[in-house]
Each structure stands twice: as structure tokens, then as C-alpha cells.
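Whiteboard transcription, Tuesday session. T.W. wrote the C-alpha cells on the left side:
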């Protein structure tokens, strides 16, 4: 059999290159995160106790300050750190001197408590030793009306006493659910927010997290979404990959965002 023309062989390798790079990212990204330099703790209690210095990302609070809505993410604790982040929402009405945090704490389920927590505190503390990053930063008149909507959505979260690290519902499921219920946030969660695609099967078709597009999901195990904020995103077994053409960026499993950073900020 004569050899294939050289241009056909080249085309085959060109088509295989993205697949190869994607597989390298799936393997290499989590490994790189696993070996990152960060504070080492023997137990989660030590990590929690050691996470006391704010990152300096929060807007000032107190008299004369505007309303603020912020969403944060930080790498999770333990063996899941290379793959996933924990996300949370912080709100502050105008003139208020304290932030109000909304997030899910999975350990509360084991004590018979609701997993959704609403508490006052510093919004930008490290999460069990992992530095937070800011995903959304809204201030002033745009943020003020969203605060009550966020509180109401958090109170209506349907999995108040349920928690599963994978495929969900987990902390990222909660923030994604609030994002869909409050489309004014325009929230785009990163590829490392494993659990964000979790929905019950009767809600398999619906809006994307940002509200700017649509998504189809099978319990978060497999999903496909497309939107102006998210771009096009595919998820298989919790491994999310996203192509964001408008912002010239890609997001890969374990790695997160590559390209232009995206933080929605107004005010």
C-alpha cells in the first residue's frame, strides 16, 4: 500500500494536537497545583486557624461606603485542591460596617444542620490556607438591589440539608444556583468550580449560570452550556473546559483560566 500523502499526515497531527494539549492540561494542571507552594497544615482545623489574614480584595466598609456584592473562589482543602475551588458570596449594604457571607459548609450536614451558612465576617480571608481570588465585584447603585435578591435566593436554595462533593450539590452548586436565580449578577464561575453544573433531572434544560445563555445537564456529570458570559463550555465527569471567544481565553480542568482575566466589576 503506498504511503499517505504528506499533507494528509500533517492534517491528522494538526487535528490531534488540540486533543493532546487538552489531555496534558488535565494531567499537568492538577499536578502543578498540587506542588504549588502554599502554607502546609496537618489537619483542616490547623488550616482554618491559620487562615486569618485578609487578602486585601474587599471593598471598605463603614459610613460613607457604597453597597457591595462580591464573589470569591479559593482552592479547596486536602486531596481536592488540585482539581476544585470553593466559592462564596459576600454582600454589604450601603453604609454597613460588616460584610455578610453566604456559602455552603459540607461538614454541617453530618451534624444535622443546614449546610447553607449566612454569617458576618471578612469576605477575603484565605480558605483553609488557600488565597482567594475575586470573581465578581459590583458596587454602588448596581449592587444595592441585588443584595435582597441574593438573600432571598439563598433562603430558597433547594438542597439546604444535602451535600455531596461530587457531582453535587456542593458549595459551587449553591453559588451557581444563586447566580441563575439572580441573573443581574452576570456570574461566570471558573472551570474549577466543580459542582456548578449540578441540577435535578427535571431541570436538565435551563439558563446558564450567568443567565446570558442556556445549558443542558445530566446531574452535573455531563453538561453543555453556551452564553455571552461563559462562552461555550463542556463538562464530562466534573472536568470542565470552556472556550471564551469574547474575552480571548480558555478554561481547562484543574488549570482554570488561561488568557485575559475576567472579573466583572462595576461601580
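and on the right, the sequence the group agreed on:
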Amino acid at each position: 500500500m503506498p504511503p499517505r500523502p504528506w499533507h494528509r499526515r500533517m492534517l491528522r497531527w494538526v487535528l490531534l494536537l488540540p486533543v493532546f494539549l487538552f489531555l496534558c492540561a488535565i494531567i499537568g494542571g492538577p499536578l502543578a497545583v498540587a506542588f504549588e507552594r502554599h502554607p502546609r497544615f496537618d489537619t483542616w482545623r490547623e488550616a482554618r486557624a491559620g487562615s486569618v489574614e485578609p487578602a486585601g480584595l474587599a471593598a471598605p466598609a463603614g459610613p460613607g461606603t457604597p453597597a457591595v456584592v462580591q464573589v470569591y473562589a479559593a482552592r479547596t482543602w486536602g486531596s481536592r485542591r488540585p482539581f476544585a475551588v470553593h466559592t462564596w458570596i459576600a454582600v454589604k449594604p450601603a453604609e454597613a460596617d460588616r460584610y455578610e457571607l453566604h456559602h455552603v459548609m459540607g461538614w454541617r450536614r453530618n451534624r444535622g444542620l443546614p449546610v447553607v451558612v449566612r454569617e458576618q465576617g471578612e469576605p477575603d480571608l484565605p480558605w483553609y490556607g488557600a488565597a482567594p481570588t475575586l470573581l465578581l465585584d459590583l458596587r454602588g447603585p448596581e449592587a444595592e438591589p441585588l443584595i435582597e435578591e441574593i438573600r432571598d435566593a439563598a433562603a430558597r436554595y433547594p438542597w439546604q440539608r444535602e451535600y455531596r462533593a461530587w457531582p453535587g450539590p456542593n458549595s459551587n452548586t449553591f453559588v451557581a444556583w444563586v447566580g441563575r436565580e439572580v441573573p443581574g449578577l452576570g456570574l461566570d464561575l471558573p472551570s474549577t468550580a466543580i459542582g456548578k453544573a449540578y441540577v435535578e433531572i427535571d431541570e436538565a434544560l435551563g439558563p446558564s449560570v450567568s443567565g446570558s445563555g442556556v445549558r443542558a445537564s445530566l446531574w452535573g456529570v455531563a453538561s453543555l452550556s453556551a452564553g455571552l458570559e461563559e462562552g461555550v463550555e463542556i463538562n464530562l465527569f466534573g472536568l470542565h473546559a470552556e472556550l471564551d471567544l469574547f474575552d480571548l481565553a480558555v478554561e481547562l480542568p484543574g488549570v482554570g483560566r488561561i488568557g485575559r482575566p475576567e472579573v466583572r466589576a462595576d461601580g
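Someone added at the bottom: The first strand starts at residue 68 and ends at 75.
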